[in-house]
């Protein structure tokens, strides 16, 4: 009889320990999400007369996220993010040919806009049901980016004379911040994630190397406000 009681107590302790571990692990999860990246403001501007124009097109975004719930409705989130955005060469060509009507223009992109970083901050959890959470997060951290590398090739319409203008890629590191909201659909061992995020970072590219129309090397510097909105879909795994 005593043996049965001892076994029952051990079984009860194991069940309680298992529930405690399960409760602890359900407080955190890691996820991966992908989706489109929609450039905004200066980053998306295509005005050849405005040096802040980024000529960025809609691209793609990858996020690796981690959340840890401290309280029932509050926790800490961290996110690694990468975005790639092509240069809007069609609009750039249109603007150049409108400005220089006696030249034909073609543009070759050797490297597109790319940016990314590590961000962290608080998040607010608003449970809508036992299986659906609505989260709001505000993140801040380290961010960097690479500017595009491209070649502009021109042909004089009357004489056929050709000339090229080249600019190499440059990199810069700065701070970045993100404001986002999304829904998490909980299953026994994973989540489905749907998030919308706004991300911004001011970067400055110094000593950007290139070759002008005469083939002479030059260096230049410019600032770029990288900003975009993402809509990502992914899966999170309970730790």
Report on the structure:
By secondary structure, the chain is an alpha+beta fold. The chain has a single domain (41-238), classed as Beta Barrel (Porin), CATH 2.40.160. Helix content is 16%, strand content 62%. The chain has an 8-stranded antiparallel barrel with strand order 1-2-3-5-6-9-10-11. The radius of gyration is 26 Å and the shape is elongated. Residues 1-25 have low confidence and may be disordered.
Note the main attributes of this structure.
239 residues, alpha+beta, Porin, eight-stranded antiparallel beta barrel, 3 helices, 11 strands, elongated
Summarize the structure.
The chain has 239 residues and is α+β, with helices and mostly antiparallel strands. It has helices spanning 2-25, 41-44, 89-99, and strands at 28-39, 59-69, 74-85, 103-111, 113-127, 132-146, 149-156, 162-167, 171-186, 190-211, 217-238.
Give helix % range. Answer: 10-25%
Structural class, by secondary structure, is alpha+beta
Name the shape in a single word. elongated
Radius of gyration: 26 Å
How many alpha or pi helices? 3
Secondary structure: number of strands: 11
Please tell me the overall pLDDT. Answer: 88
Oligomeric state of shown chains: single chain
CATH class assignment: Mainly Beta
CATH topology: Porin
Report the uncertain regions. 1-25
Q: Which H/E pattern describes the elements?
A: HEHEEHEEEEEEEE
Beginning-to-end CA distance, first to last residue: 39 Å
The largest beta-sheet arranges its strands as 1-2-3-5-6-9-10-11
Strand count, sense and barrel status of the largest sheet are: 8 strands, antiparallel, barrel
Q: How many structural domains in the coordinates?
A: 1
Name of the CATH architecture? Beta Barrel
**What fraction of the residues are assigned to beta strands by DSSP?**
over 45%
């Amino acid at each position: 009889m005593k043996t049965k009681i001892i076994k029952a107590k051990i079984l009860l302790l194991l069940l309680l320990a298992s529930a405690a571990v399960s409760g602890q692990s359900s407080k955190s999860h890691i996820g991966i999400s992908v989706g489109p990246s929609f450039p905004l403001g200066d980053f998306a501007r295509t005005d050849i007369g405005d040096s802040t124009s980024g000529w960025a097109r809609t691209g793609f975004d990858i996020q690796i996220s981690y959340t840890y719930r401290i309280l029932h409705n509050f926790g800490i989130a961290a996110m690694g993010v990468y975005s790639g955005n092509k240069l809007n060469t069609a609009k750039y060509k249109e603007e150049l040919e409108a400005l220089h009507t006696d030249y034909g223009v073609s543009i070759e992109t050797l490297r597109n806009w790319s940016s990314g970083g590590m961000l962290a901050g608080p998040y607010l959890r608003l449970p809508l049901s036992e299986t659906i959470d609505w989260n709001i997060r505000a993140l801040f951290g380290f961010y960097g980016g690479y500017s595009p590398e491209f070649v502009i090739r021109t042909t004089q319409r009357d004489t056929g004379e050709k000339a090229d203008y080249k600019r190499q890629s440059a990199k810069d590191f700065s701070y970045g911040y993100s404001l986002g909201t999304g829904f998490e659909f909980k299953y026994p061992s994973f989540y489905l994630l749907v998030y919308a995020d706004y991300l911004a970072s001011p970067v400055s590219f110094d000593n950007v190397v290139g070759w002008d129309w005469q083939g002479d090397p030059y260096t230049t510097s410019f600032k770029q406000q990288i900003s975009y909105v993402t809509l990502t879909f992914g899966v999170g795994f309970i730790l």
